[in-house]
Structures are given as structure tokens and as C-alpha cells.
Amino acid sequence: MHSGEKKGPILALDIGSKRTGVAVSDSQRQMASTLRTLERQDYQQMLHRIGKYIKEYEVKLMVVGIPLDSRDGSYTPKAIEIAAEARELQKHFGISVIGVDERFSTSKSNDFLIEVADLSRKKRKKVVDTMAAQSILQGYLDDPKKGIDLRDIPDGKCQDTGSE
């Protein structure tokens, strides 16, 4: 269903408005590991870092968390925005990018950090995004059929013109 090689590491991104969490899989695509959280204030620097990870880990595929509506799984405006960014990343880096339903990944990671790791809010902010990326990636590794083809997500260019 999805293009992209069947072997080699996968890079995962949890794209947020302020930070982007990054995780990577092993080359056998069995286990996801956290990498780091990138600040989005310098977008070019963030792209540079992602490019370095792609080269360093010899990434063959990227997955990006898509925030579907928690009630019905529909595409939210934020999902459409992130899918557009994912398509740009695909063009920029020349590797396949697949969307993954990220509902609850950040809140589950946050809950874990509060309950198990007992981290303060300040410390949680530093790791929650990369843990969410790890959760997104592990979900994809466990069931690749849950991947979302970016072509299936509206591009947001066909807006209602209000002609009714």
C-alpha cells in the first residue's frame, strides 16, 4: 500500500506548534527510540537537524503524527496543516513520508511522565514531544497497515468560497 523500502530505520516526527519530537527505529523496524525535541523557532535549523538524522541513521522512511479528531477520526484543520508540512518534508528530503494517527500520543506520554517518572512540568516539556514521537513510531512498527497515505488527506487548498 505504501511506497518506501521495507527495511532500514524509520524516523518519526511529532510536529507541534513550538516543538517537534523526533524518534527513530532500529534497522529491523522492531523498536522505536527517542532522539530529541527540536525547537521550531528556527525552521531551517530544524530541517538541518532532521536531514542529519536521515543521513546518520540511513533512514528509508519517515512517519509523521497526524492529529485526527478524537471523537470520530476525521481530519481536523491541524491534521490538514501537518499533512501539508509532511508533504513538504517528503519533497525536501526525497524520502517517503507516511501519516500515523497520533490521537492521544502526547497526552499518554504526559500521563506516563507524571505518574511513573514523576517529572515536573518544566522537565516534562523537554521530553514529552520526543516520547510522543516514539509512541507514534512504535504504533506504526506494531501495525504498518495503520499508516495514512498523505494523498488521502485533503490539502486545504480547496476552501469553501461561500458561494451558497
UniProtKB/TrEMBL annotation:
<keyword id="KW-0378">Hydrolase</keyword>
<dbReference type="InterPro" id="IPR037027">
    <property type="entry name" value="YqgF/RNaseH-like_dom_sf"/>
</dbReference>
<dbReference type="GO" id="GO:0016788">
    <property type="term" value="F:hydrolase activity, acting on ester bonds"/>
</dbReference>
<keyword id="KW-0540">Nuclease</keyword>
<dbReference type="InterPro" id="IPR012337">
    <property type="entry name" value="RNaseH-like_sf"/>
</dbReference>
<dbReference type="GO" id="GO:0000967">
    <property type="term" value="P:rRNA 5'-end processing"/>
</dbReference>
<keyword id="KW-0963">Cytoplasm</keyword>
<dbReference type="InterPro" id="IPR006641">
    <property type="entry name" value="YqgF/RNaseH-like_dom"/>
</dbReference>
<comment type="similarity">
    <text>Belongs to the YqgF HJR family.</text>
</comment>
<dbReference type="GO" id="GO:0004518">
    <property type="term" value="F:nuclease activity"/>
</dbReference>
<dbReference type="Pfam" id="PF03652">
    <property type="entry name" value="RuvX"/>
</dbReference>
<dbReference type="GO" id="GO:0005829">
    <property type="term" value="C:cytosol"/>
</dbReference>
<keyword id="KW-0690">Ribosome biogenesis</keyword>
<comment type="function">
    <text>Could be a nuclease involved in processing of the 5'-end of pre-16S rRNA.</text>
</comment>
<dbReference type="InterPro" id="IPR005227">
    <property type="entry name" value="YqgF"/>
</dbReference>
<protein>
    <recommendedName>
        <fullName>Putative pre-16S rRNA nuclease</fullName>
        <ecNumber>3.1.-.-</ecNumber>
    </recommendedName>
</protein>
<feature type="domain" description="YqgF/RNase H-like">
    <location>
        <begin position="8"/>
        <end position="109"/>
    </location>
</feature>
